[in-house]
Each structure stands twice: as C-alpha cells, then as structure tokens.
Specification:
Layout lengths: L4 E9 L5 E8 L8 E8 L8 H4 L3 H6 L3 E6 L16 H15 L4 E10 L1 H10 L6 E7 L5 H4 L3 E2 L2 E2 L1 H13 L6 H4 L4 H11 L3 H6 L6 H4 L14 E6 L7 H8 L4 E6 L17 H14 L11 E6 L13 E6 L7 E8 L4 E2 L8 E3 L33 E4 L7 E5 L2 E8 L5 E9 L5 E10 L18 E6 L3 E5 L4 E7 L15 E3 L5 E7 L22 E4 L4 E7 L6 E8 L8 E4 L4 E13 L2 E17 L2 E13 L3 E12 L2 E13 L4
Parallel strand pairs: 3-4, 3-5, 5-6, 6-9, 9-10, 10-11
Antiparallel strand pairs: 1-2, 2-4, 7-8, 11-12, 13-14, 13-25, 15-24, 16-23, 17-22, 17-25, 18-21, 18-24, 18-25, 19-20, 19-23, 26-29, 27-28, 28-30, 29-30, 30-31, 31-32, 32-33, 33-34
Amino acid sequence: MNSVEVIETIWIPMPDGTQLAARLWLPPNAHENPVPCLLEYIPYRRRDRTRLRDETMHPRFAEAGYASIRVDIRGNGDSGGLAEDEYSHQETQDGVDVIAWLAKQPWCDGNVGMFGKSWGAYNSFQVAAKRPPALKAIAPVMGCDDRWREDIHFYGGVLAGDNFWWGSIMQLLNAFPPDPEIVGEDKWRDLWRERLEAMEFWPAMWLEHQTHDEMWRRGSICEDYDAINVPVYYFGGWADLYRDTPFRISEHLNVPVKVMMGPWSHLYPHEGKPTPQVDFIAEVLRFWDYWLKGIDTGILDEPPLHLYMMDSMRPAGTQTHRLGRWVEERSWPSPNVSNETYWLNAGSLDAQAQTGAPMQVTSPQTFGSAGGVMCSFGIPGDLPLDCRIDAAGAMVFRSDKLESSLDILGQPEVALRVSVDQPQAFVAALLIDEAPDGAQTLISRGFFNLMHRDSDTEPTPVVPGEEMDISIQLHAIGYNVPVSHRIMVQLATAYWPILWPAPTPVTATVVPGSSALSLPVRTNAPDAPAPRDLPVPAPGSVPPTSTRGQGGSETTLTRDAHTGRLTERVFIGGGVMGPSAKKVLETGTEISDTSERIYSILPDDPLSAIATMRQETRFERGDWDARIKTWSQQTATASDFVLNATVECWDGDTLFFKTEWNHVIPRNGM
C-alpha cells in the first residue's frame, strides 16, 4: 500500500505577488484521483512551533482520503509579507485566495473544508463569511463569533489582564525569523529585518480601541450571521474562554450546526485536559465525509449538540480528569432547559424576594486571586482555586441546601440593581458550588463595566449613589450541583489579575430583594435515548523528537507580609531564569523557550497594579543560531495606561536588532 506523500514546503502565490508557505499531506494516488482538501491557516510556524501537533492530525486526514494543508499566515513562519494585526482584512482575503488556489490544483477535486483552533477557528468563521465558492464546510475549534463580547481583550466591557499577556506573546512571535533552510541562506536575514522593522506593540495598538468600534466588529461574524452559508461543526471546552459562541451560533446561524463541548482547556479534543478526551480526527472526519464526499455517515440523524455535564468536584488548580456525563440536545434554545429564579436577599438566595437593609462591599484590589485564568491551556495550576480564599472581599448570597441535584446548562444571568460611589466602576459576579464541608468551587462568572450600561461605543460616567439596573451574563456552562450542596453568588468590585482595576477603590450597594439570579436548569426528556458513544483518541504519528536538559513550569501566588502586595507568577521553561530544556525536532532544529509572567497589586491601591512579561526563544541548527528576547510592562495612572516594551534579537553572538516602545494611552471608561 502506498504511503502518504508529504511535501515539506509548497508555495501559494497571492494576487499581490506575496507567497505563503505551506506543508502538504497527500493521500496515495491523489495526482491521478483528485480528492477534497482540508485547510488549516494559522500564524504559528508550521516548520517548528506546531509541527508535532500537526503530525497528530494532517497525516490521518490524508490517510482518510483528503489533501491536508497547513498554511502559515502572511508575515509568519516562512510566508512572505508582514503581519498587521489579528484577523486583518488582508489575512481574510488571503484565506479566500488560498481556497481558490487549492480548488484549482490537480490533486484537489474542487471541494475544500477549513478548520483550526483558536486563531484558526476565528479565521475559519471569517473566511467562510466571504463565501469562497469552493469552501463547503468548516470545523472551528475554540474560537468566537464576537470579538468584543468574548475575545481575550475585554470581558463584559472591562479591560482584561489577558490583553497585555496575549499581546506580549505576539510581541515575541512577531519577532521570530524565517527558516534559512526554507527561504534561503542568502535571504533570511533581510526578511527577518523587514519583519522586525515593521513590528508594532500590539497591546498598545489594541488599547487605542477601548470601545466596541470597527476594529472589534471586523471579523465578528455576529455582525451578519447570514453571511455564513456552509455547515459548521464547533468544538469547545468548559475550561476554555470561548463558551458562549457555540450557543449563539446554534441559535442564530441558518445552516446545519453541530457542537461538541467537553471539559477541556484551550486544546484540541484529542489532546484535551482534563480528560476524558475525544478523537477529534475520527469525529470530524464523519463531518467532512458527509459534506465534502457525500457519504451518508448518519451525522444529520443525531442530535446536533453533544455536551459534557461536569460533576461537582473539589476546587483544584490542576485537574487531570473531570467527572461527568455526556448529554445531547436536538436544538438550542432547548425545550429541556428552563430558567429558575433565585432572589438576592440579605445574604441568601431564595425563591421569593425579601426586603432588608442595604448591603455594601468594597472589595480589596487582590480579590480574584483564586480565579485561576479565564482561558486555561492545561498548564498545572491555572484552574480556579477554592473561592473561600477571596470570599471575605465580596458580597455573598447563599441558597439553602439543595433537596435534589441541579443540572445547569447554558448562560446564567444576574439581573442586578446596584449603586456605586465612584464615576467609574465594574461588578464581578461569581456563581459558586458550595459543598457541605464548605469547599467552594467556581461554576461560572461574568463581569459588567458600569460605564457601558447605556452603550458599548460611548461610555458615560456613573452618577455616584444612583441606582442602575444591569444584566450580567455569566459564561455558559454544563455543571451538576449535587444534593445537599448550596448555590452561592459572590459580587465584587475588583477581580485581579483577570480584570484591570478601576482607577479608585469602589463601594457597591445592593438592596435585598431587588436583584435576581436566573439559572438555566436542564431536565432529561423522559424518552431521550442514551447519548452515542464517542471515539477515543488513537495514537498519532508524531515525528521523532527529544528533549535536552530540564525545563518546567511554576504557578505561584505570594503575599508580602509587610506591604500586602499580592504577586502572581507564571513561569514556563528555563533560559536566563533557570535550566533550559531544548526540544529537538527531526528537522534538526533545536528550540528552547522561557516565559515569565508577573502580575502584582497592593490591596488598597488600584494604581499599584503592574503586569510584566519576560520571554526568550532560541532556534539552533548547524550554523543557524537565532535568539529573541522580549520584555514588556503595563501600569496605569488615574488617567492613562502606560506600556513599555523592548525586543532584542541576536544572530549568533551578534546583536542583530533592538527596538523599544513607550506608549501613554488615555483611559476611556476602563
């Protein structure tokens, strides 16, 4: 039997003359018998950064009869041109042009599917909205339909700490060199310098857009759901950031939509953490076979939503396995889900509203230390801790012990009547599962910038003391609260480091009986069949790799007993800050990485907030030795954000390039 043909580099010409670099896997005899194509189109360097992951998927797609291609976006990896921003108009148009090029190749039968995780999920949606004729279906994994509402930059209209962190990651990735072996020993330095000289500091660029403007509408398919005219299979995870998109697209897209939501972090389902994992390749092949090959796989006969209902577990920053069960829904909104109301009374959650004396809270700026991260990558220690750690800094509401278990499926919501004592403020709302022994596990959370109560485009200061009616949508979740547990709500006026703090400490006031929690509660249909069995991951064909030296990761929370300053540190790798591990690929490339992220704040001073990142990456192979070192920092005054950053690049022992950025950006309701 003939084996899969792998073409290490194939060049795809764009209309403006730019060439995009790609790696191609072809099934046997594709040159004689054209086959459908599958496209993954992302910036993360197919040559080395995603090489091992690519090998778990693309060869299997080729074995199943698809030409599978992995394309580096313009200005990344070995592709020509320059990177402008996330999801630029040029990036989307390039995706359309890549699909048109694929459809004309002699090994392609003219039918194309597109997939990808995160960035690749976004541009799968965005390219599909342009309706390239050859595109017949998409399978986005953990991306979103609304860049303002659910992207990594703003949560509930509040500046996310992740805007700085993610932008600093891109600061490093944008400085990576092309591979001399691919672009040529005589060209790679010129191409590298061209990229470096064109770089901008993306966190500052994004902070110039602190309202729901055209920058965030660009690429948000929620602006026109009808633009999508191909079937969609969406894969997501409850420990990922993008939990609401699958429910919105299920409701609003006018095409066949399938959804699978597991307990996973920001990882493909076949490598998902926590387990159980699902064989993404086997599952999505049923989708491709139906829509690209016309094979009746039965995929349209089954319920379109396959969702993991997580069991209650003790809070832990690291989870290897998540207990639970799979459930299915035939539509969304589902007739099996109805809302139950709990009134926020004087410290309690009740079926009936009760009046009482006003309640107040001024949260310390360190509130949120137990929150983990909004978008887990499966790194040890990045999941939420016991919510009791922060509880003293919140307004707390607690239900009676449940007499029967409760399945929550969908987006909880808090309808809140609140007043504050400052013109600028936000509210964080946490939904919590309290065990009989007092342990408190986070179920979901949501946030609301009070200056955006009337408009996301024109923030208006709050009138201190004036009551406001707002609706805080919490992230969607599938979660079972057991018998004898309690449901809790915590309300706070800070949530560090997930949210950047308001300029001054805020006191919030809530009158008992004026606000309510709405829970989407699911009941099993009495005649519902058992959910179908899902494929378990098969071993992938991964090229040889080895590791030299010792690396590692650390996630720590420390408090200075003298000042009270709370510091969160996330460290991955080695390099100048510890022993470095080198990943050695079968191409001969050795890669070493170091990343240190530090967020710290004083409990009573929001202007003491500091976010810092240090990163270093080194590529080595023969005479090629390229090293990139970055530093970035964000602070704020009452009126401005202050961002400073540097990039240093070495060619061997020679400093090849150095630049720095210094930005002062006015706060606009943030």
